[in-house]
Specification:
By secondary structure, the chain is mainly α. The protein has a domain of 238 residues: Rhodopsin 7-helix transmembrane proteins (Rhopdopsin 7-helix transmembrane proteins, Up-down Bundle). The chain is 69% helix and 1% strand. A two-stranded antiparallel ribbon has the order 1-2. The protein starts with a helix and ends in a 7-residue tail after the last helix.
């Protein structure tokens, strides 16, 4: 059993972690609301998950005080319900992010498609774990022992229900984490595959004499991609300029920035996926190890694991905020400058000091600048323009549809 001193240290650790998470969650929400350029699709999902990160702090700020008030006390039961539902909801949101990227790549979804599904996504992310938590709230043994009770760190599934902790919480979470990682990897490989096809096609055509280029043709995969991605979908074709995927940069084959843009997009996507992976491992490996220990050695108290778990479990709000800062670092610089101007009482800012929005800068009709006819239905130049633009668009589709941009 834990001593009074040890429980006091655990409480302080959890209060510290909860405070950091509260600051991160509220900062994310504030930045999203204050700066319109931060409202990218991937940030919309992070914005929705931030509310769960803040709500669960109602439970973690209470820490051990929940069961000290009595396991049948209303706060103890509320604390357990929020722990069970909101911690799982955060993992579901990260899974949804990975799943939507996969839909963008495989089904060619647009940002409008994602926004149409937002209500359903919110219902799934918060509704499913909340329903499960409410079911557990009503379960008790014939002797009247409730499922929710003393879990050392706070009120949650009691120590007499060790196996239920595994099947109702940790097992579903690790299944979601595993699927999320598979989705991130599959999309990353697809981006790499398209990038290599783009590079091979350009290398093949650039090495031919000018007189023979009219007879050169890209590989079947490249040709199929060039044809199939002229329009993202029948639904997108009716939306005109509102479709962000269709309006993404379309540099011609002769533009050396085309391949660099694809490579930068791939690099940024891999970085974001890696950050989410590290965040998930940071939170759930120590927490799971703590519960596995208690399952193998029931009744024993591992002070070190309990302290680490007390710190990492509430920290999800801060982790998500760090990733949010990375994704929107340019936009946050704009927001910081605007707030600084407001504080100093200035009426305007020097616009040329603002960072350039790379996707907007790339949305230039280079074919017109070079004297080419972008509407020409024939000719090797037109073919290379269409093939490279389609491949570049496909490779960077997840980044653009989620509101990301390649950094320079």
């Amino acid at each position: 059993m834990a001593s009074v001193h040890q429980l006091g240290v655990i409480k302080k650790i959890m209060l510290t972690s909860s405070t950091l998470s509260l600051v991160g969650g509220l900062a994310l929400i504030a930045a999203y609301l204050l700066e319109p350029r931060c409202r990218k699709p991937i940030n919309r999902l992070a914005y929705y998950s931030a509310f769960g990160n803040v709500i669960v702090l109602i439970a973690t700020f209470g820490s051990i005080e929940g069961y000290r008030l009595g396991i049948t006390n209303g706060y103890c039961q509320l604390q357990a319900l929020l722990i069970q539902s909101m911690l799982m909801a955060d993992v579901i949101w990260i899974f949804i992010m990975a799943f939507t990227v996969a839909l963008i790549m495989s089904r060619r979804w647009s940002t409008e498609d994602l926004q149409d599904c937002e209500t359903k996504l919110i219902a799934v992310a918060y509704g499913v774990p909340t329903i499960l938590a409410l079911i557990l709230l009503g379960v008790q043994t014939s002797a009247g022992v409730h499922v929710y009770g003393n879990a050392t760190l706070y009120c949650w599934i009691g120590s007499t229900w060790q196996e239920l902790r595994l099947y109702a919480f940790y097992l579903p979470i690790w299944i979601l984490i595993f699927i999320t990682m598979l989705l991130f990897i599959s999309v990353g490989l697809r981006i790499r595959e398209v990038k290599m096809e783009n590079r091979n096609f350009r290398s093949h055509n650039s090495g031919q004499p000018k007189t023979d280029r009219s007879d050169s043709k890209p590989s079947k995969a490249v040709s199929d991609l060039a044809i199939s991605h002229q329009l993202d979908s029948p639904r997108d074709a009716t939306r005109g300029s509102s479709n962000q995927l269709a309006n993404y940069s379309r540099p011609p084959a002769s533009n050396p920035n085309a391949l660099a843009t694809v490579e930068e997009a791939q690099k940024q996507y891999v970085t974001i996926a890696f950050m989410y992976f590290i965040g998930l491992m940071l939170v759930w490996i120590p927490a799971s190890a703590n519960r596995v220990w208690s399952l193998i050695y029931p009744g024993e108290f591992n002070y070190g694991l309990q302290c680490v778990a007390a710190f990492v479990l509430p920290i999800q709000g801060l982790v998500n905020f760090i990733i949010f800062v990375y994704v929107t670092r340019n936009e946050l610089q704009v927001l910081a400058r605007r707030l600084s101007v407001m504080i100093r009482g200035k009426s305007s800012t020097n616009r040329h000091m603002l960072p350039v929005d790379l996707p907007s800068a790339l949305c230039v009709d280079h074919t017109r600048e070079q004297g080419l006819n972008p509407k020409s239905p024939s000719g090797s130049t037109s073919l290379k323009v269409k093939a490279t633009a389609s491949l570049s668009k496909l490779a960077t589709a997840p980044l653009k549809a989620l509101g990301l941009q390649a950094s320079t």
